[in-house]
Design a protein that fits this description.
InterPro entries: Bact_com_dev_regulator, Com_YlbF, YheA/YmcA-like_dom_sf. The protein is mainly α and 138 residues long. Helix 2 packs antiparallel against helix 5 and helix 3 runs antiparallel to helix 4. The longest helix is centred in the last third of the chain and has 25 residues. It is extended, with a radius of gyration of 23 Å. Helix content is 70%, strand content 6%.
Length: 138
C-alpha cells in the first residue's frame, strides 16, 4: 500500500483528497474570518495608523529609543532612567486615539482568533502546550 493511501477499517482512503479538502476548508475559514467585524475593524484601524504621518514618526522614535535601551541592556549599561523613558514613550504613543483604537481592534481580533482556534482544537483533544510523552522531561 503506498503512503498516499491509508487503510481505515476495510476501506482505502486517498489521503491527498482528505488533505485537499482540509486545505480548502482552511481557505474558506480564512475568507470567513476576513468578513468578521473584528477583522474589518482591525484592518481599518491598521490603515489609519499606517496613513498617519505623525503617528508613524512617533512609532519610529519609540522604536529607536527601545532599540537603544535594548543595546544598553545587553552591554550592562541600561539605567532605570532609560527604562522609565522607554515606558513613558510607550504610554504616550498608546494614548494617542488612533493608536488606542488600533490596539483595541488588535486585541478584539486576537480574542476572536483564539476562540476560533479553541473551536478547531477542542475536538482533536490535543494539548499543544503540554509535554510530549516524556521525551523532553528533565
Amino acid at each position: 500500500m503506498s503512503g498516499k493511501f491509508k487503510r481505515i477499517g476495510v476501506q482505502l482512503v486517498d489521503m491527498s483528497i482528505q488533505t485537499d479538502r482540509l486545505e480548502e476548508l482552511g481557505h474558506e475559514l480564512g475568507e470567513e474570518i476576513a468578513e468578521t467585524p473584528e477583522y474589518k475593524a482591525f484592518e481599518e484601524a491598521k490603515a489609519a495608523v499606517e496613513n498617519d504621518e505623525e503617528i508613524q514618526t512617533e512609532i519610529r522614535e519609540f522604536q529607536q529609543l527601545r532599540e537603544e535601551f535594548m543595546m544598553a541592556r545587553q552591554t550592562g549599561n541600561a539605567t532605570q532612567e532609560a527604562l522609565q523613558k522607554v515606558q513613558s514613550a510607550q504610554r504616550e504613543l498608546h494614548s494617542k486615539p488612533v493608536m488606542a483604537e488600533y490596539l483595541e481592534a488588535q486585541e478584539e481580533l486576537q480574542d476572536r482568533l483564539e476562540a476560533i482556534n479553541k473551536a478547531i482544537s477542542d475536538p482533536l483533544a490535543v494539548d499543544f502546550g503540554g509535554e510530549a510523552g516524556g521525551c523532553c522531561k528533565d
